[in-house]
Every structure is written in structure tokens, then in C-alpha cells.
Specification:
This protein is mainly beta and about 775 residues long. It has eight helices and 58 strands.
């Protein structure tokens, strides 16, 4: 539907809020109904159609004249165009024969368009509405008017819907034809199955029904002297209409200080006039008030943004999709989902069980009931406001970052604190008192931190702070948090948060303090749930396993989208894996020999093991140990691996007969020979102090030996390990006999070669 408003010149003097209110109502009706028609309605301020508003009237309307129609035409048109369940039910009650006895239906051009009896886009004017310029109006569609103000939006809804056909004539009045009838007359009953086709006394029995009089949806104004027969009976003072407390846009009279809203009953009445709804009957649309009266029940309701559900009776399976619901004292809702932008208010004496907070606000008054089922937080951004002085006994399930428990009934104290006890009991301490909230024992709050603060209205707000769930390290040389790094390596710390965090660095940059003396500075991630900090290993930084030992904000701010400051307590941790920081060069801790004692002659092998104070690796060449006899021990990679000790290197020394004889074999240094010896972090080993002496180990040399008063001189060995008969050895053998040269020598030492005996050498 498209309502085209033509403002009369009188509107030029109206307050700006007047046109805003008119636009609100026009948008409400345009979106509420789907009839493909274009309506042209004149709007006046202080006048209607050029005539002054009558004294004592807040507003007036006038339909544009349409042709006169008989009952059959109206009935057939209604049935042909029905779409909703309310229309199907209502039009099924229309009898085949004319209940008016041949009356003329004076329905106006707008309704004739809705029923397809006039061209949908006929450009002629369809009606006029006007409003009292002297009335004390309230222009806001959602705010309750002051005690002496009238709700303008409700009055505009009242008058424009009259132009749309909301006129009951009962054969005694007519807009354009004498003794006319209106479509509302067909749904006026005095008893089940009994249509009331004549006016009655004030507050008599006529009521609106779409099920042949079985159910009364509202009481009609029944007396022509009291106003329009198509309005609801206003009762005395307050009450009378189908809305909460009897206040309704279609009432015959409006009370000041209240919202006279467009109710579900009004919506159904418009459908019975031929206006097809854009939403199902169970949808409460923008601007509509769906009232469930005491003793009544409703179910499967969806309250859209701008819609209001007021429950004095019982409602089940309610979804607030941006709309609002109030449960009056004595009212009950079983099962309600409160979506983002929605508010559920449970008044004292009201009851709501099966509450799911899906991003909206649930306000529980002192004296309200929440049943025995859990209160479930679903998604984030929801608020449970408790106006009483004690927490609810319900289990609170699904509480997450972005959700809030607003303990409005208790003022925040200067030392307020909140603690998660075993069993997920959340304990609030204020004013030397404790208050316990039972969170779902199956919910996992590991790594998360609870916060407490003021709610801005004197109450106490409890919430989860954006917290550090885990810290991981990465960078060159790091795999799954494991590594061994020397100076110059870069390490990235990633703080994985439980929610998106914005980092403000206007007043400073946050840092992490590390257990090796280093500092990691904030690098990025603002606006995400992963914050990164960078650290470069410096000389002198050393630790067996890098960890975070503290943090400093330096004036920076870390906040989530709800304004909560992040907790970095979880950042103080040892990240997964073992990340060694090592900037100290490995040093030799000694050299051992095998065998460790004895006389090693040509062909013998000596295994030398060079030990370091930490694990080392050899790359790029074959290092050698320099020996004091001019020989070298060669690095043996296979023998090194067989040691199964990464802090030791194996070297092989094969004794040669050309090696200088030494009574004490010694290592005098290490020749890298193009190789690099370094620890796992890459620090090059300090090789300046590689030396050792083996006091009981000789090479090609045997010291003098004494036995039985005889001292055999020092001997030297030749290429085959045989004794060299130098001057000293020859002289001793000549004097005492060749066999005495073997005193103290290992068994199996080869005999020396025998020289020519002509020089006097003889065998014993």
C-alpha cells in the first residue's frame, strides 16, 4: 500500500513534530498491509477539508465518496481477496444471504480500492483528516505522554484508518448514502451466532468477533450519541479498549498521559475490512501493540523491531526480534528468546520461565518470578538486569564475553570484587556482604577473568573481561614453540584473546617482560583477537625456556567493543614448547683418552673425546686436535654419534712410527680446518682453551724402569713398534743382555732387529 499525504496549507503553522508523527503512521500502515493500491489523503492542522475541527474533538476524518454497493458485492470481494488466517476465519462467517436486508454499503473510496472495486491507482482524493491545533500533543511515538498530553500518533492512526474504511453505520448513519452500512457491521455480535445489527444503549453488548461471535476481541461503542460506532467502547475514565489498561488507538475517546497504541485487535479489524497483512498473524510489527489480556493465551509470537507485546495473561514460545515485551503483574510467559535490540520487562508479580537472552535485555523487577529453568545467554551482548536485592536461584548458562549481569538492586561498593568459586559459583562481594550467582557448572571459564563495575545508574555490573586464552611463539628457528636461539633472532609473541580488542597507543605502547631480561613490544593486531609483540634476542639474554614474566601498559588501553578493559594476567605464562635463548659461546670442559694409560706404538689407536659445557654441532669441515708429538687426532662423526651425547666430539689418533716419541701424550689445541663448531643456538664455540695432558699415556716412548736393583733406560719405538737400539739401548743390552730391554714393557712388544755380531753385540 502507498499512502500519499497531501498537506493542506494549514499545516504550515504546525510544529515540526506533527509531520514526523504523520510520516511514522503512514510508514506503519504502508508496511503493515500489502494491497497494491495508491491512496491520496489530505491532512490538516486545526481543520479538516477546510472546516475547523469541532470543539472537544482531537481529530476528525471524512471518507471520499465511492459508489453504493450491495452486500453480495462486498462479500464476494472480501472472500476473493482473503490471504490471512484472520481473514479466512472472519469471511467464512459471512452468510450467503444479506443480513442487512438489502442495505446499501457506504464504504468510501480507499476501502473500495482495497477490495478491487475502484482502480488501484485512481488519482482522485480518497479522504481528509485533521487534528486539533490547540491540543496539548505528545509527538514521540514511543514515549509515554505527560499527564496532560495526548498521544498524537494514536490519534493519527485513528483518523487515517477511518478513511481506510473503519466506519460502522448500522443503517442509521451514512457518510454519503442515507441509512448506510459499513463492513465493520458484519462482525458485530451480541452472542455466539447472533449479529447485532442495530445500535444499543451506552456500554451495551456489541462486540467484535471473527469466529461468529464465539470469541470477543473488543467491545464496540454502541451508542450513536457517544461517538463513532466503528470505535471501541472507551469505558469510564481509563479502560474499555483491547489495549493494555484499555488504552487503544481505535477507542472512541482518548485518555491523556497514556499511549493509545495500534493493537493486534486493531490489526485484525483492518484485515476484516479487506486490508491484507504483510506479516503473519503471529508477527507483532513495528508500531503494533499485541496485548494478551488476563485470562487469555497466545503463542508462537514474533515481536519485530518497534513492536510491543504486553502480557497480562499467558504467552508461550515468544521471540523478540528487535521488539519489546512487558509481563504485567499476574502475567506469564513460558519460553522467550530476547534478541539483540529487544527488551523483556518482568514486572513485580509477573513470571517468565525458559528465558534465553540472545543479545537483548531482560529486566527482572523486584518481586518478579523467573521459574526454575536456567536463564540462558545465547550469542553475546545480552544483559540480565536484576532489580531485587538477591540474585535469582536459576542456573545462568552460556554467560560469555560481552554479556552482563546488572545487579541493579545492589549499589556498587568501593571494594567490590567478584570471584569464580569451585562449581562455577560466581561470588560478588560488596559492602561486606556476599551474593552468589550459580553459573552453569558445565560452562568452561578457563583462562577468563571476571570484572565488576558500576552500571552507570548506581547498580553493579558483572562481566567477563577480554582475556588472554593462550600465548604462542613463532619466528625463524622456532617450530611449534620449540627452538634454540642466539643473539639477533626475532621472536613474535601472539596473545590469543577471547574477544576482539582495540589497542590505543596514543599515550604509550604496551610491552611484555621476559624471563631472560628482554622486552617484547606491541607490534599489531588491534581490532582482532590476536595481539602480536616483537622481541629481538640481544647479547647477554639467556634462559633455558623463554617465558613472559610480566607486562606493562605504559599508558596504552586495550578494550573490547563493550568498553571493558582487557586483562593481560593470562599473558604471564610459559608458552608451549621449549624455547631456549642462548647467547653464550660453548666452552671446552676437558679431553679424555682411551686408553688412558699405556705405551702406544706404531699402529695403535687412541680415541680422544672433547667435551663441551653444552650440546654442539660440527659443520663445514673436519676439525683436528693437535698433539704434542707433532701428530693430529681427526674428528670422527660416526664415533661422535655413537657417544649419544651432543656435548661431546670424538677424535681418532693412529700412532705412527714417524711420530715423535713422547712420554706424556698431550693435546695442545684444536685446528678447525674449515669447520664450525657451535651450540644449537648458533653460538661459535670458544676453542682457545682446548688442551690436556695424559700423564700415564705414552706414544712411541717407554720411560726408564727399575726392578731388582736394575734400571732399564728410556726406550723409543720404531715404525713397527720395535725397540730402537739407539746408543743408550744398545749399551744396556750389551751390558746386561737383550732380554733386559723388555723389563716393564707390555707383553708382545716386538724384538728389536739383531745387528751384525762383529761389532761385539751378543745374545744372552
Amino acid at each position: 500500500m502507498q499512502i500519499n499525504v497531501i498537506y493542506d496549507p494549514s499545516v504550515a503553522s504546525a510544529p515540526s513534530g506533527f509531520k514526523t508523527a504523520v510520516a511514522y503512521v503512514v510508514n506503519l500502515l504502508d508496511t503493515a498491509f500489502t494491497n497494491d493500491v495508491s491512496l491520496n489523503i489530505h491532512v490538516g492542522w486545526g481543520e479538516v477539508g477546510g472546516s475547523a475541527i469541532a470543539s472537544g474533538f482531537l481529530g476528525e476524518s471524512e471518507e471520499a465518496k465511492a459508489p453504493a454497493y450491495d452486500y453480495a458485492t462486498i462479500r464476494n470481494a472480501l472472500i476473493a481477496d482473503r490471504t490471512s488466517s484472520a481473514q479466512l476465519a472472519a469471511f467464512a462467517t459471512l452468510p450467503a444471504s444479506d443480513p442487512t436486508g438489502g442495505g446499501t454499503f457506504d464504504i468510501g473510496r480507499a476501502e473500495a480500492k482495497a477490495l478491487g472495486l475502484i482502480g488501484a491507482n485512481d488519482p482522485a482524493n480518497d479522504g481528509w483528516v485533521g487534528f486539533d491545533a490547540a491540543a496539548n500533543w505528545s509527538y514521540d511515538p514511543t514515549a509515554t505522554p505527560g499527564s496532560n498530553q495526548y498521544y498524537l500518533v494514536g490519534s493519527i492512526e485513528h483518523e487515517i484508518t477511518e478513511v481506510l474504511g473503519r466506519n460502522s453505520l448500522l443503517g442509521v448513519n451514512g457518510e454519503h448514502y442515507a441509512n448506510g452500512w459499513g463492513v465493520p457491521d458484519l462482525f458485530r455480535f451480541s452472542a455466539p451466532g447472533v449479529r447485532e445489527l442495530a445500535p444499543g444503549p451506552v456500554h451495551s453488548t456489541g462486540y467484535f468477533s471473527i469466529d461468529n461471535g464465539v470469541t470477543s476481541l473488543a467491545s464496540w461503542n454502541n451508542h450513536v450519541a457517544k461517538g463513532d460506532l466503528g470505535d471501541w467502547d472507551s469505558g469510564f475514565g481509563s479502560g474499555g479498549g483491547p489495549g493494555p489498561f484499555g488504552d487503544d488507538a481505535f477507542n472512541n475517546e482518548s485518555n491523556s498521559g497514556v499511549i493509545n497504541g495500534f493493537t493486534q485487535t486493531d490489526f485484525i479489524q483492518m484485515q476484516t475490512l479487506g486490508w491484507n497483512p504483510s506479516t503473519p498473524d503471529n508477527f507483532v510489527f513495528n508500531g503494533e501493540i499485541y496485548f494478551v489480556a488476563a485470562g487469555r493465551a497466545a503463542g508462537n509470537l514474533v515481536v519485530q523491531a518497534g513492536g510491543t507485546l504486553d502480557v497480562a495473561g499467558t504467552a508461550t514460545a515468544v521471540a523478540l526480534d528487535g521488539g519489546n515485551t512487558e509481563i504485567d503483574g499476574g502475567g506469564t510467559i513460558h519460553g522467550i528468546v530476547v534478541g539483540a535490540g529487544s527488551t523483556l520487562t518482568v514486572d513485580s508479580g509477573g513470571s517468565a520461565d525458559g528465558v534465553t537472552i540472545a543479545g537483548g535485555l531482560v529486566d527482572v523487577a523486584s518481586g518478579a518470578k523467573t521459574g526454575g529453568t536456567p536463564i540462558v545467554f545465547q550469542r553475546t551482548g545480552g544483559t540480565l538486569e536484576i532489580d531485587g536485592h538477591t540474585p535469582p536461584a536459576n542456573i545462568i548458562s552460556g554467560f560469555a564475553i560481552g554479556d552482563t549481569i546488572d545487579f541493579y538492586g545492589v549499589n556498587i561498593g568501593s571494594n567490590a570484587a567478584v570471584t569464580l568459586l569451585p562449581g562455577n559459583v560466581l561470588e560478588l562481594t560488596e559492602h561486606n556482604k556476599t551474593f552468589d550467582f550459580q553459573l552453569d557448572p558445565t560452562d568452561n571459564f578457563a583462562g577468563q577473568t571476571f570484572g565488576v563495575g558500576g552500571d552507570g545508574f548506581g547498580g553493579t555490573a558483572i562481566f567477563l573481561l577480554p582475556s588472554v586464552l593462550s600465548v604462542v611463539t613463532s619466528g625463524a628457528g622456532i617450530s611449534d614453540g620449540n627452538g634454540d636461539l642466539d643473539a639477533g633472532h626475532a621472536v613474535t609473541f601472539t596473545l590469543n584473546m577471547c574477544d576482539t580488542v582495540t589497542v590505543g597507543t596514543t599515550h604509550g605502547t604496551p610491552t611484555l617482560l621476559l624471563n631472560d631480561g628482554g622486552i617484547a613490544s606491541y607490534a599489531g593486531g588491534s581490532g582482532s583477537d590476536a595481539l602480536t609483540f616483537s622481541y629481538t634476542v640481544a647479547a647477554g639474554d639467556n634462559t633455558a625456556d623463554l617465558a613472559v614474566s610480566g607486562f606493562l601498559l605504559h599508558g596504552a588501553s586495550l578494550t573490547d567493543s563493550y568498553g571493558h578493559h582487557a586483562s593481560l594476567v593470562g599473558a604471564v605464562t610459559n608458552p608451549g614448547g621449549i624455547l631456549q635463548i642462548d647467547t653464550t659461546a660453548p666452552e671446552s670442559s676437558g679431553v679424555s683418552a682411551a686408553p688412558a694409560t699405556g705405551i702406544e706404538t706404531a699402529g695403535a689407536s687412541v680415541a680422544l673425546t672433547l667435551a663441551f659445557n653444552e650440546a654442539v654441532t660440527v659443520s663445514g669441515g673436519t676439525p683436528m686436535l693437535a698433539l704434542n708429538n707433532g701428530a693430529n687426532a681427526i674428528f670422527d662423526a660416526a664415533a661422535t654419534a655413537a657417544l649419544h651425547d651432543p656435548a661431546k666430539l670424538a677424535f681418532d689418533y693412529l700412532v705412527s712410527g714417524t711420530d715423535n716419541a713422547v712420554a706424556t701424550l698431550a693435546v695442545t689445541g684444536l685446528n678447525a680446518n674449515g669447520a664450525t663448531i657451535a651450540d644449537l643456538a648458533g653460538n661459535a664455540a670458544d676453542l682457545s682453551h682446548v688442551n690436556a695432558s695424559f700423564n700415564s699415556l705414552s706414544a712411541n716412548d717407554s720411560p726408564a724402569f727399575s726392578a731388582d736393583g736394575l734400571t732399564r733406560p728410556e726406550l723409543h719405538f720404531g715404525r713397527a713398534g720395535s725397540i730402537i737400539l739407539d746408543t743408550t739401548a744398545s749399551s744396556f743390552a750389551a751390558t746386561y743382555g737383550l732380554e733386559y730391554l723388555y723389563l716393564g714393557l707390555p707383553a708382545g712388544t716386538p724384538y728389536p732387529p739383531v745387528p751384525d755380531t762383529s761389532i761385539g753385540f751378543h745374545l744372552v
